[in-house]
Structure formats: structure tokens, C-alpha cells
Write a structure and sequence with these properties.
mainly alpha
Length: 98
């Protein structure tokens, strides 16, 4: 049997990887719409997008953990409940607004 800490860690790692891949592609696709970004050297633009992605992953992980604590299940995202989903989205929106 896998312990709760290990289950949370493995769920968070899988979620973080998916979140990283999704957010990095999103950050890179947005670059043409920001003034000055297309003119930057490719490596500088990539590093800026990497830092933004790391921040996005941190927000997503905090929201994931809060929803998991609220729902008392690390697999809440596979079988989402309304309270867990609302918790996840509320933290994401709050982080975006602030």
C-alpha cells in the first residue's frame, strides 16, 4: 500500500509536469502579442517564458493542493467534485487578479 504522502507527491508531480508542458507552450504562443518580445534573442525570450511558466506551475500546484485538501482526495482531478473544482478555479482566478 502506498502512503498518503507518497500518493500526494506522485499526484502533484504528474500534475506539475502536465501543467509545465501546457503552460510553457501557452507562454511561447503568446510572445508575438507582447511589445518587444519578438525582437528579443530567442534564448532571452525562452528564459522569460520559462520563468513565467515556473510561476504558473506554482500557482497551479497551490490550487491543486488546496483542492486536494478540501476534497480529501489526491485524485480529485480524475473524478472532480464541484467543491474541489470551485476551490481550484477560485485560487487560480484570485492569483490572476492579484
Amino acid at each position: 500500500m502506498i502512503g498518503p504522502a507518497r500518493t500526494l507527491a506522485s499526484a502533484a508531480a504528474a500534475f506539475a509536469l502536465f501543467s509545465f508542458l501546457l503552460n510553457f507552450v501557452w507562454e511561447m504562443l503568446q510572445t508575438p502579442f507582447f511589445a518587444g518580445m519578438p525582437a528579443l534573442p530567442h534564448w532571452d525570450m525562452t528564459l522569460l517564458c520559462l520563468w513565467a511558466t515556473i510561476g504558473d506551475v506554482g500557482i497551479a500546484l497551490a490550487a491543486f493542493a488546496a483542492a486536494a485538501l478540501f476534497d480529501r482526495r489526491t485524485d480529485w482531478i480524475l473524478r472532480p467534485s464541484m467543491p474541489a473544482t470551485v476551490t481550484y478555479l477560485a485560487i487560480g482566478v484570485l492569483a490572476t487578479v492579484l
